[in-house]
Write a structure and sequence with these properties.
Distance between the termini: 45 Å
CATH architecture: 3-Layer(aba) Sandwich
Low-confidence stretches: none
Helix content: 25-40%
Structural class: alpha/beta
CATH topology: Rossmann fold
CATH superfamily: HUPs
Strand content: 5-15%
Largest sheet: 5 strands, parallel
């Protein structure tokens, strides 16, 4: 059976990417990261979602990016709240974590080489996203080339690894509809950058706003609780 590593954050996008990988017949290996993020609740949610899809193995890697900082998710910088869709779509926000996807994909690449995985799935998209540079197609293509140049398996032509981005040209509403069709347990997912002490979404950060907009446009009820 062909194998795939799926980067799992416990959110809508990565959970849908996991469902797509399963639907395409891959044996699933899930990879999540405890990187010092303020929304550490996502790790628990990633475990629950991975269990629902019966992954073969779920690894949680610890990488303390708080030692580097530079992001509202890994330092004491305030998470932006109550921004309009126009504001969200402009520039790169302070919730960008420097080189995060490069770090995550590098770990996934190492594991893929060890287990002989043919694909790495990552739930990036360029339509309803917050301007992160490591979510763009040109970045993904460059990393895929790096994977072939920088691994023993790639150089020896023993493995042709693909970086799979099934959501990259989908809106959040389209992702949610696809996830619903494939049985994603959205009630288990978590999206908020700054959850409350009661483990609810703040409802006001960029991620919550995009999520709520996606469910509304998909004509579905968002099953998770919000503080506001």
């Amino acid at each position: 059976m062909k194998k795939a590593i799926v980067l799992c954050s416990g959110g809508v996008d990565s959970s849908t990417a996991l469902a797509i990988a399963k639907a395409e017949g891959y044996e699933l290996y899930a990879l999540s990261f405890d990187y010092g993020q303020r929304h550490i609740l996502e790790i628990e949610k990633a475990k629950e979602v991975a269990n629902c899809f019966g992954v073969k193995d779920h690894r949680i890697m610890k990488v303390d990016l708080r030692q580097i900082g530079g992001s509202a998710l890994t330092s004491d910088i305030q998470v932006p709240k109550d921004r309009s869709e126009d504001q969200i779509s402009q520039g790169i926000p302070v919730t960008y974590v420097p080189a995060r996807n490069t770090i995550f994909l590098s770990f996934a690449l190492a594991w893929a080489e060890v287990i002989g995985a043919e694909a790495i799935f990552i739930g990036v998209n360029v339509l309803d996203y917050s301007g992160y540079p490591d979510c763009r197609p040109e970045y993904i293509h460059a990393f895929e080339r790096l994977a072939h140049l920088g691994t023993k398996a790639g150089v020896e032509k023993k493995l042709h690894l693909e970086i799979m981005t099934p959501l990259i040209q989908m809106t959040k509403a389209q992702i949610i509809r696809e996830g619903q069709k494939l049985g994603v347990p959205f009630h288990l997912t978590h999206s908020c950058y700054d959850p409350t002490s009661e483990r609810k979404g703040c409802g006001r950060c960029d991620s919550c706003i995009l999520r709520k907009k996606g469910f509304e446009e998909a004509g579905l009820k968002d099953p998770i609780p919000y503080a506001s």
